[in-house]
Amino acid sequence: MAIRVNLISGRTIQQGVAMEAGKEKPAYTTACGIIELDPADFKKLGAFRNTNVRVTSSYGSVVVKAVEATQGPHPGVAYIPMGPWANMVVNPNTYSTGMPTFKGTPVEVETAKNEPVLSSLELVRKGCRGELA
Amino acid sequence: MTRTVTDVICPFCGTLCDDLEVVVSDDGKELHEVYNACAIGAEKFLHSQAKDRITRPRMRQEDGSWKEISYDEAIEYTATMLAEAKKPLMYGWSSTNCEAQAVGSEIGEAVGAVMDNTATVCHGTSLIAVQDIGIPSCTLGEVKNRADRILFWGCNPAHAHPRHMSRYSIFPRGFFTGKGHTGRKMIVVDPRPTDTASMADIHLQIEQGRDYELLNALRVAFKGEKLPDVVAGIPKEKIYEAAETLKSGRFAIIFFGMGVTQSLGKNHNIDEAIAVTRDLNEYTKAAIMPMRGHYNVTGSGQVWGWQFGFPYAVDLSRGFARYNPGETTSNDLLRRDEVDAVFVLGSDPGAHFPFSSVKKIYNLPSVVIDPHETPTSEVCKVHVPVAFVGVEVGGCAYRMDNVPIETRKVVDAPEGMMTDEEFLKRVLGRVKEIKGV
Ligand code: SF4
């Protein structure tokens, strides 16, 4: 089952703390390699909390762990903290402003139980070398 | 024995809290404790002590592994790369002091670079709006002492600027705001019920990306004119209520963040937010301020403002300063393959640019100056670790309200490490030699 949601990204305090503690550390992946979904969207997706999902937009695709939104409810809106995971799928178009469209990307979310969430360094390395699925 | 350094400035976010206390060892080499900072600020200080910290420059080998090189070699590589490039991009500049930014711009001028800072992915669109229609603003001190109507639009200070509300905007007892938060009304506009929104008197849970409409509706509501039943997902009664609340205050302040700058509409959203502020001044005193996020990003806008006349996206490749966001901005340049080398200092585009831009950096000659290992160091050819500005080096930084603050050094950098400023000065010297100027 796949669901369609509107994706936004931004800061969380966990993102800030983990980033300052080192982006190469597992805590950064735990803080930012996630997608926060509304309980209603979890129901539609038919998945348990804390399972890995694949998030796909017209601009890219990434595997993250789906968690229940702590700052909710907001059905239809999903949230990936700012970082390399969100940036695999956000809309890079700036529409002549210089600013990529980091908020409001339509994405599809589907379960991907057996696919791993890569660390930040692995994700950009593999992405740059064209080694991502 | 230890000693405590007081009045330390936090180098993480644009709030630039100036009341931190840091406990260091007597010889000034080790940092033990940080008091008064929020969780993020404290972590920033403590991380400088990481045992696995990289302390020497390194260069990427053919097989992908790193080889340690000397600072001299790193300077030579950087200077040659910049001098030989037709149009290098020199990006970042937010996690460093104004002194280093000034040397950086001299290099940019010498090599005909495009100078861009992290505003390009945070408040760049705000700067465009300010240039279009001006901005009625104030300082955070005025907010603390006077503001009794606080509107947070598309920002979540509880997470991004954790001490902003306690130091300046909501909780403090100021000269005319002696009741603290009980005398203030707080309004939050956000598509999510965030931790900030849950504290608000009024939360307008707007449909994502419809900021312009709601801002426009507020202007209509100020005048008591008719609104449709629902605007941007908000029932009109709530909009009238918010408008009345703002009008009835003695001093209203609008703080706005990435929800406004990064959603479609972008600079036009901010035009409209400034227009709301202007309209509000018909009824009471009102001001507006961007929630600048990244330490000294405001400072780099200031430095380039006085040097080149533009706060970011400054193209020096023709020998004079040009500025045209959408053309001379980092992501547009990378997307269009218009730069042939990338120099990064004081930022992490590898983590915070859309991936298509990161890939472009990976395919170009590139140098990153950063105390840490980051996704940017993962894609650059040379990584130069430096002393930590704000922890191991002092210097000038600008707070989000454009107030310059002299920051403090609290501990020594590990033996033999250069500062940003020293490194840039050496690169500048070498660039001048190569160019024969
Ligand atoms: S609010 Fe910002 S400046 Fe203040 S301690 Fe936290 S991160 Fe540092």
Question: What does it look like?
Answer:
The complex is a heterodimer of chains A (133) and B (437). Chain A has 133 residues and is of the alpha/beta class. In chain A, 27% of the residues lie in helices and 31% in strands. Chain A is built from 5 helices and 6 strands, in the order βααβαβββαβα. Chain A starts with a strand and ends in a 5-residue tail after the last helix. Chain B is an alpha/beta fold. Chain B has 17 helices and 21 strands. The mean pLDDT of chain B is 96. Helices cover 36% and strands 20% of the residues of chain B. Chains A and B meet through β1, α1 and α5 of A and α1, α4, α6, α10 and α13 of B. The complex binds iron/sulfur cluster. Iron/sulfur cluster binds next to α1 of chain B. Iron/sulfur cluster (SF4) binds next to α1 of chain B.
List the helices and strands and how they pair.
The complex is a heterodimer of chains A (133) and B (437).
Chain A: E1 2-10, H1 13-21, H2 26-32, E2 34-37, H3 39-45, E3 51-57, E4 60-68, E5 77-81, H4 84-87, E6 105-111, H5 120-128
Parallel strand pairs in A: 1-5, 2-4
Antiparallel strand pairs in A: 1-6, 3-4, 3-6
Helix pairs in contact in A: 1-2
Chain B: E1 2-8, E2 20-25, E3 31-35, H1 39-47, E4 58-60, E5 66-68, H2 71-84, E6 88-92, H3 98-111, E7 114-117, H4 124-133, H5 140-146, E8 149-153, H6 157-160, H7 164-169, E9 185-189, E10 202-204, H8 211-222, E11 230-231, E12 234-235, H9 236-247, E13 251-256, H10 258-261, H11 267-280, E14 285-290, H12 297-308, E15 314-315, E16 322-323, H13 330-335, E17 341-345, H14 349-352, H15 355-362, E18 366-369, H16 375-379, E19 382-384, E20 395-398, E21 404-407, H17 420-435
Parallel strand pairs in B: 6-7, 6-17, 8-9, 8-13, 9-10, 13-14, 17-18, 18-19
Antiparallel strand pairs in B: 1-2, 2-3, 4-5, 4-19, 7-15, 11-12, 15-16, 20-21
Helix pairs in contact in B: 2-17, 3-12, 3-17, 4-11, 8-9, 8-11
The structure holds iron/sulfur cluster.
